[in-house]
Structures are given as C-alpha cells and as structure tokens.
Amino acid sequence: MKKEIKEELLDELLSNYKNPEDLLGPDGLLTELKRRLINRVLDAELTTHLGYEPHERKSESKNPRNGHSKKTVRSNDGKLSINVPRDREGDYEPRLIPKHQRHFNGFDDAIISLYSRGLSVREIQEHLKEIYKVEVSRELISNATEAVYHEVKAWQNRCLDSVYPIVFFDAVVVKVRHEGRVSNRAIYLALAINMQGHKEVLGMWTSQTEGAKFWLNVATELQNRGLSDIFICCVDGLSGFGDALETVFPKTRIQRCVVHLIRNSLKFVSWKERKAVAADLKLIYRAATKEQAAQALDSFKEQYEDRFPAICKIWQNNWEQITPFFDYPQDIRKVIYTTNAIESLNSSFRKISKNRNHFPHIESLFKLFYLSLKNISKKWNQPIPNWSKALNRFSIEFEDRMPNIES
C-alpha cells in the first residue's frame, strides 16, 4: 500500500539541504532515515515479542528488555550502523535483520546479479566497493551464491513435459579444476522446443568421458523426469549418442546438424577453395528432395573425391542421419537441420565465462550457467519462427504421438 507523506514533513526533512551529498551521500538524509526506520522497526518487533511497551513497568515479566547492541549491516546504500534491542533471556529473534546476518537480502540479490553476468569474485568486490562504498569478503560472496546451487539441483530434477517435438544436444567446453589439475571439461546441454514453440533447457550434464553409457544415463534421467517422447533430435556427432537414445526413445528420429558437417568438411579445404566447395555442398542440403540431394552428393564425389576423400566419407557415412529434414517443407527445414539455437546459447555461456581462467569446481560453473540462463531465457517469450507450420506438419506425421496442446 502506498504511504501518503505530508508536505510539511518533507519540508522539515529538507530544511538543511544544500547539495546532493546532503541527501544521497554516505551520511546523507536517506541513509540516516533508513537507519532510524530500521531501529524503530526492531524496537517494535521486540515490543510485540515481549507484549509490553518500552518504559512500561511489568513486574510480572520474567524477560525484561536488556538494552541494545550495535551492529553494522551492508545494504545497497553502503554500511549502516544500527542498534539491535535485546531481551534478558535472549530468545528474541529479529525478523527484519536476523541474528548473524550482516546484510540485507537485496544486497545478496546485487551480488548474485553481478555473479550471473560473469564477474569474478574480485571484480564483484571492486564493484561493490566503488558503487556502494562497501568492502565484502570472498566468504560473503560465496555464501550469497551458495544458496543458488540448491536452486540448480531443484531445477535439474524438475518434472518435464511428456513430449518435446524437437530437442537439440550440444556441448560447450570450459576449464575446470578437478583433483588438483585444471583441464578442459565438456558441459552438455539439452535445449528443447516445447509444444508451444518456446525454447526450454532441459538440463546440464558433465562427464570425464563421453560415450553410450553416459548418454544412456542422460536419456534415462530425462525419462524419469517425465519425458516420454521426442519427435526429432538434432545433434552434432556425439559419441555413443544414437545407440543410447534409441534404447530409451526408440521412435525418435536423429538429425545430424548440417552446419556442423559443413564446418567439419571445410577443415580439409584450403582458404582459397573454401568458397567453391561450400557452394557445392550447399547444392546438397538445399536440394528440393532427398533424391535430388543424393544426385548432388554423387556429383560432389565425382568432382572432389580424389582431392577431398575425407569430406565425401563424412557425408556418405552420415547420410541417413543427415537427410530426415527433407521430409519437411522448405520453410521449416532450417529449424530442424541446424543446432544454431543451442549454439547461440553456448555462445552466451562462453561470453560470461571468458573472464575466468578456470572454475574452481563443477558446482561453481553450474551456478554461473544456471544464473545466466535465467537472464537469457527472459528473452524467450515468443515462439520460434514458422512454428505454427512446423506444428501442423508434426500433428499429421506424428498424429498418434501428439499430446493435447494447451495454450
């Protein structure tokens, strides 16, 4: 409820105002007003707890007031020195600023906001000192972000929808300290498009080794969280992924990411010839039908097999997983055959982690990625382009597997 403040009171408060420092400075009016209000609230809390007013004689009270103790707390306005009232028995628990707490919850939010944007602990300390004139310890920052890991675990174990039409799997590589050594660690992500056409990250995982056993555990976890079916899964050649996914979701069609295949192919080509080779590869994946694409691949092999046998082998060996998107109209193919959506997410993760030489442990990395994802996903408020056309197509092709769609 908005509180009406009388003009007379404002006039009195600003009677000695001369410059902005008098109002906004560390010892200005707003800081003093905040301090006085906090003291008044704490005194009122103790009065409610004890059941009688200050200075009121209560001979029958076994727990009288016992003075005040000074306490310094941190806030977005800097440091505040307050007086916390005490009772003789010590069972009064302040609600506004609990015992042992040296900062307001809003201050924690400021720390977490800075942490989520990739600032290191030292940078957060410098920022808070510069803006709020407050020095904070590494321990305080760690404690403020520690509660986030409980959110991460709850998020990672949340229930999922029963069906996701499209799911993209990809990885981002970061440096993490593990068992005393800093090494590259792959963080695998699953980005889904739900029935409403919105992006949704299903989870994050990491493992020292990638293989069928690891992916089987991931797929089983998703199943245990409520996921029963995926129409199309777009991936970039993850080792052992296909066999594991087929075991848990046997009806899912696997689509190899064409963009990744092109990048892998052009690694074998000199800069001088890349433009021409890329144009000839484009004739394959931009063909109107699967048959025409096969003819374009044959033409490519005739032209380049002697010079670039590795490229021809890549496309030939993965042909059945490259071509599922040809079953769909032109305007929705790009949604299916590229992992650009998840690569954009990974790019954001790389940006916010570039200031870190390495992460001290996996937990700190997951905290940062989770907080960053909360910021990134705020922009995911619209369905992906051409989703209504894709959904109409899916409703016919996967009619027996389509769930009831709720708006």
Q: What's the helix and strand layout?
A:
Layout: H1 7-13, H2 20-24, H3 29-50, E1 65-75, E2 78-87, H4 105-116, H5 121-132, H6 138-156, E3 163-178, E4 181-193, E5 199-206, H7 212-224, E6 229-235, H8 241-248, E7 253-256, H9 258-266, H10 271-285, H11 290-304, H12 309-317, H13 319-322, H14 330-337, H15 340-353, H16 362-376, H17 387-397
Parallel strand pairs: 3-6, 6-7
Antiparallel strand pairs: 1-2, 3-4, 4-5
What does this structure look like?
By secondary structure, this protein is α/β, with parallel strands linked by helices. It has 3 domains: 1-97, no CATH class; 103-157; 162-401, no CATH class. The chain contains 17 helices and 7 strands. The protein has helices at 7-13, 20-24, 29-50, 105-116, 121-132, 138-156, 212-224, 241-248, 258-266, 271-285, 290-304, 309-317, 319-322, 330-337, 340-353, 362-376, 387-397, and strands at 65-75, 78-87, 163-178, 181-193, 199-206, 229-235, 253-256. A 5-stranded mixed sheet has the order 5-4-3-6-7. α4 (105-116) crosses α16 (362-376) and α10 runs antiparallel to α11. It is elongated, with a radius of gyration of 30 Å. The chain starts with 6 loop residues before the first helix and ends in a 10-residue tail after the last helix.
